[in-house]
Design a protein that fits this description.
Radius of gyration: 17 Å
Structural class: alpha/beta
CATH class: Alpha Beta
Strand content: 15-25%
Number of strands: 8
Order of helices and strands: HEEHHEHEEEHEHEH
Largest sheet: 6 strands, mixed
Distance between the termini: 34 Å
CATH topology: Rossmann fold
Length: 201
């Protein structure tokens, strides 16, 4: 196992421990699901920040994307974008982060995008979890209205429920670190294993 494989494996374990839940859930899209991924307990913890930053930068390079800025719709995208910005500075090739508000501020400058994103920047839009692709498309619309170009969408989890195809239909490639079914099946296997150990006792 190489170093990046170890990073991905550890991040997967952290997601299973902190973020993946099996049950009956209604998603933001309105769809029902037998599992839920709340990435924030992982992406906002210290270890998760370090792991996301390393793996995310590798994925950007692998995709051939060289953005000057990364960011997406608040709140899920924020810690991922900040982790990438932090790690990129440590690696000597800084990429700045930005945040897209769900609505423009009603006071002050009335900005919808925070973080000093300049007009004309090349951007990768960030998502924590993609289901329908709607949040990513909202962020893309705001970024393009700001005068920037979008290289693609980088997500921590793709639930494989049509979001990738919807983004592709709009002309944007999605790269994701994990699939939702992969995490769901691993969480179920862990739960079954724990139940079996309990019964044996």
């Amino acid at each position: 196992m190489n170093d990046l494989d170890a990073v991905r494996h550890r991040l997967r374990d952290l997601l299973l421990e902190r973020s993946v839940r099996i049950g009956d859930f209604t998603l933001a899209s309105g769809a029902r699901s037998d599992y839920y991924v709340d990435a924030r307990p992982t992406t906002m913890c210290a270890e998760g920040q370090a792991l996301v930053g390393r793996l995310g930068l590798h994925m950007l390079a692998e995709a051939g994307w060289a953005p000057s800025h990364v960011g997406g719709l608040t709140l899920g995208a924020d810690p991922i974008a900040y982790a990438l910005a932090h790690r990129s500075f440590l690696d000597g090739a800084p990429i700045d982060a930005f945040t897209v508000r769900k609505q423009a501020k009603a006071h002050g400058t009335g900005r919808r995008i925070e973080g000093g994103l300049p007009e004309g920047a090349a951007v990768v839009v960030i998502e924590d979890s993609v289901t329908s692709g709607g949040s990513a498309l909202q962020a893309i619309e705001a970024v393009r209205a700001h005068g920037c170009s979008v290289l693609g969408v980088l997500a921590l989890v793709d639930r494989d429920e049509g979001g990738r195809e919807r983004l592709a239909g709009a002309g944007y490639l999605l790269r994701a670190a994990f699939s939702g079914p992969e995490l769901r099946d691993a969480a179920r296997a862990q739960s079954s294993s724990r139940s079996g150990m309990t019964r044996q006792r």
